[in-house]
# Entry
Amino acid sequence: MNPEAVPTAEAPERLAFDLQDLFKATPRHPRFLLPLLQDIQSRYRYLPRASLKLVAEHLQIPESRVYAVATFYKALSLTPKGEKTVKVCLGTACHLRGAASVLDALSRSLGIPPGGTTADLRFTLETVNCLGACALAPVVTVNERVYGQMTPGRVAELIREETPHEAD
Ligand code: FES
# Structure
């Protein structure tokens, strides 16, 4: 999805229109709160503010309850996420092999702090505690792709590889 396709809180009517199919397919029961939020998150890579109200109306529950769940889970976000999530492992094995300097280099190259998203919505930078690939430490993942034995010197190459090239 390109960034222009991501709805904003300023366009609640469009959002209601876009989410019609999802609401139609979701029974009006509070137990569907989390799955519904997960579906919206995966569709837009975040939860537009207006969607919380729509979810509350659909499930007939208070908006405060929707908000509480939306802010509780790390996988849900009220701010737009990048098309690609760069995760830097700061677990023990990765930390001992220089993960902090890899994180610094990524942060500088992308121009965002950990937890941030680039203005073009291309990348979100996150830290995690163990990606389960300690033998490859330090490890960075970009969506499903794993980069092992990362160094600050390989950061530019990683960003180049993960940036789509315009056709000539
Ligand atoms: S500590 Fe980094 S992958 Fe396990």
In short: The two ends are 21 Å apart (CA to CA). The longest strand covers residues 84-89.
